[in-house]
Amino acid sequence: MPAITRRTKWRRGILAFDLIAGISLVLLILGGFALATSRLVNIQKRNVMQRQVRDAAECALNSIRAGLPDPQDIVRRSGSTFAGEIEIRIQREPASGEWTGATRTTVEAILDRGDQSAIRAVLSAYVFSAGDAP
Amino acid sequence: MIRSRRRRALLLIEFLFVLLPSVIVFGLMMFLIVDFITIQRLAGEHASRMTVVDSLSAKLRDDIASSRNVGCVVSEDGTAVLSLSSIDNESIIYRFDPERVSRSVSEVADNIWSAPRLGFACAMRSGAAGRLLQLSLEELPPPPNSALPPRRFVMTFVLPAAQAPGAGVDR
């Protein structure tokens, strides 16, 4: 009788272990797939954002070159998907050497959504007061 | 006999406990795999569209930079005609239609840029030192996911200030 009880306990143990191992393995595979899909979606989204940030920096710099007054507003009204969330920082300093008379203009476009590291694009150009040659 | 029945019962329970969740989980996994493949396909299509856009951008920048005169008329519906005179006195005309952009040199079409589900629209702003041509690109989602919002990109080009009245139309 004690021998049968021990065997039954052993079988139950094996069954419980089998159940836990089987379900865990399947859940692990599912979790892995979900994580991979989520990362892939994030990478694609980030690629789109990076392009939009670069386009926004270019738009702001071109607005300055064309002599338009408010580059941030032009970027915001451009209609691109993340335009409303992109911050534009402009730095102007007088150029020296061969570029004397021009202004070295640096535009930094930043998209910070908080959920991941901010995306930045920095573009610089020498802009003459009468406008840069296109 | 009793042990055999118990074994069968245990086996049945195991099947129920393991097979049922497995079927559910593998079903979910199938959806994930389909999503995975769809994302890859859409990424490929997006990359293909962006190649078309980059090619247009490079050619247009090159033509603007090497032109002597630039005239541009933007209509209310977003279509535009950009006329450039090259240094070799060639007349280059870009036509921006909602579904394509075409380039012709001396009235002979030599390039057409278009891609499925990619729309073009133009706008122009005049500044103190020149004009800003904005080319908006709208990437529509594929038909089964038409509820998704379209992606919008904007490319900008600086043109010299309008020399004659009516050469540039602000929108």
In short:
The complex is a heterodimer of chains A (134) and B (171). Chain A has 134 residues and is of the alpha+beta class.
Shape descriptor of chain B? rod-shaped
* Shape by Cα distribution of chain A: rod-shaped
Query: Helical proportion of chain B?
Result: 25-40%
Q: What share of the residues of chain B does DSSP label as strand, in percent?
A: 25-35%
Please trace the helix and strand order of chain B, writing H or E for each element: HEEEEEEEE
Question: Strand arrangement, largest sheet of chain A?
Answer: 1-2-3
Total of helices of chain B? 1
Roughly how much helix do the residues of chain A carry, as a percent range?
40-55%
- Rounded to the nearest angstrom, the distance between the terminal CA atoms of chain B is 90 Å
SS-derived structural category of chain A = alpha+beta
Counting helices, strands and paired strands, the structural category of chain B is alpha+beta
Can you list the strand order of the major beta sheet of chain B?
Answer: 1-2-3-4-5
Average pLDDT taken over every residue of chain A = 83
- Backbone CA Rg of chain B: 28 Å
* N-to-C SSE string of chain A, H for helix and E for strand: HHEEE
